[in-house]
DNA sequence: ATCGTTTATCGTAAATAAACGATATAAGGA
DNA sequence: TCCTTATATCGTTTATTTACGATAAACGAT
């Protein structure tokens, strides 16, 4: 019987781990984005507008940073009526921490 | 008696911690540089030329990546006659790991 | 003194990132 | 329906990154 290939069956290769890791690092390579992560950590979740208020940057710039974090998988955004509520994606954060630990 | 100000006396501000952290992340935001770090971790120290051999990149490009890691403080290079011997800077690496832990 | 080896730096081209204002979109309230 | 609010996206400018080949600098060996 031929073996079925499911993504979950194959542990990520060393190389794809490194790619994952470098992507997270890139997402965290800007002070504004680190501040966003720390803020979300401290208050659990946050409306986009509060994040804009927190940072000395234009709304469009903050939106760009949020997109960057979202694309890296570090945060998730949930629509709440008119607003977007952001929170950390702890799975990704934990995977990242583990990999840093093994540095 | 006026208090003398030594750098070491002032714990780094939140902000300068964030700057430090973002710099390290930027240094680790490229797969080649992560490979260099992992390699140095696994063999403790390494002549520049071996690192060049390890990576599918031109010598000048690798030299640039090494410079980037050195400027971030992650590695140190020691002249050994004609060659340069690179090794990790564990102090910086440990400080980074601690900060990741507190994410 | 010259030659080969090793590494760093320079110059440059192409790609990506960061910032902004302007504009689009979507939801809620009048 | 129209207006306001909240957020995302577009278009643009400027700066930075990545990669390379060519060249320079330092050293050891001949």
Task: Give a description of the structure.
2 copies of one chain form a homodimer. Helices cover 58% and strands 15% of the residues of chain A. With 103 residues, chain A is an alpha+beta fold. A 3-stranded antiparallel beta sheet of chain A has the order 1-3-2. The longest helix of chain A has 14 residues, at 14-27. The radius of gyration of chain A is 16 Å and the shape is elongated. In chain A, 18% of the residues are buried. The model of chain A is unreliable at 1-7 (pLDDT under 50). Chain A binds a DNA duplex (30 and 30 nucleotides) through residues 30, 47-49, 52, 57-61, 63-68, 79, 81-84.
Q: Flag low-confidence runs of chain A.
A: 1-7
The quaternary state of the protein chains shown equals homodimer
Extended strand count of chain A: 3
Tell me roughly what share of residues is in helical segments of chain A: 55-70%
Q: What's the arrangement of secondary structure elements?
A:
Two copies of one chain form a homodimer.
Chain A: H1 14-27, H2 31-43, E1 45-47, H3 48-54, H4 59-72, E2 75-80, E3 83-88, H5 90-101
Chain A binds a DNA duplex (30 and 30 nucleotides) through residues 30, 47-49, 52, 57-61, 63-68, 79, 81-84.
Could you write a compact summary of the structure shown?
Chain A has about 100 residues and is an alpha+beta fold.
Features of the shown structure:
three-stranded antiparallel beta sheet; disordered N terminus; alpha+beta; homodimer; DNA-binding; about 15% strand; 5 helices; elongated; about 100 residues; about 60% helix
């Amino acid at each position: 019987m031929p073996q079925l290939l499911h993504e979950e069956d194959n542990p990520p290769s060393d190389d794809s781990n490194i790619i994952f890791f470098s992507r997270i690092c890139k997402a965290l390579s800007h002070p504004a984005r680190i501040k966003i992560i720390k803020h979300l950590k401290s208050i659990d979740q946050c409306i986009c507008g509060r994040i804009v208020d927190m940072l000395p940057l234009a709304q469009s710039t903050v939106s760009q940073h949020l997109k960057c974090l979202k694309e890296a998988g570090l945060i998730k955004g949930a629509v709440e009526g008119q607003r977007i509520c952001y929170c950390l994606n702890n799975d990704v954060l934990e995977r990242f921490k583990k990999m840093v630990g093994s540095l």
